[in-house]
Amino acid sequence: MNKQIYTFKEGFKDGIPIGLGYLSVSFGFGIAVAAAGLSPLIALLISMTNETSAGQKAGLDIIVACGGIIEMILTQFIINLRYSLMGISLSQRLDGSFTTPWRMLLSFHITDEIFAVASTKRHKVGTRYFAGLASAPYLGWALGTLLGALAGTLLPDTVRGCLGLMLFGMFIAIIMPPARRERGVLFAICVAVGLSCLFYYLPFFDFLSGGFSLIISAVIASVLAAWLFPVANAHEEVDA
What we know:
By secondary structure, the chain is mostly helical. It is built from 13 helices and no strands. It is globular.
C-alpha cells in the first residue's frame, strides 16, 4: 500500500468549515421534517443514510404526499446523478490506498463541498485524509438535523415556519452564483421553475404528483440547456 501524504487529522481539520455549514443548513431540514409530522429519530435516520440536501428535501415531499417507491427512486436518481460524475472525476485524484471496499464505503460521503476540497489538494488523496474530511460534515449534517427536528417539536408554528425557510435559502445561495456567471445555468433554472409552476397551477396536470413533476421539469430543463448552451471542449477553448 502506498504511503499516504495527508493524515486523518488534516482531513478532519479541512472538513470542519464544511461541517459547521452543514450544521446550520440541516437544522432547516430538521425543522421541515418536524413540520411534516415525523419524529426526530426519523429525521436523524434520513440524514445519516442519505447526506444529500436536495435529495432529502425532495424525498420528504414525496413521503408527505404518500408517493410511490418508483417515484422516489426516479427522483433520487436524477437529483443525485451528479455525484456519479464527481466520483469518476475524483477517482483520478486518489492514491493506491483506495481499494474497492474503501471506494464503496467512502463514496457515500461525496458531496459538492467535499469533492471540491479533495479535488484541489496538491497531492493524491488517501483513505485516511478522505475519512477525516468526511467525518466533520457527516456529524454536522446529522447533528443539525436532530437539533432542528427537536426544536421543531417545541417551537410555535410561526417560528417553525420561518426557520423552515433556511433550506430554501440554501438552494438559492447555491444556484445564484453560477446563474450569474453562465447563461445556460440561468436558462435551465428559469425553464425548470416555469414548468414546475405550470404543472402545479394548471388543472390539466393534476394527474402528476409532485415528485414526477420535479423529474419532468429537471430533465426537460437540463436537455434544453445542454442543447442550446453546449459546453466548449478544451480544444475549442484553446483555439478561442
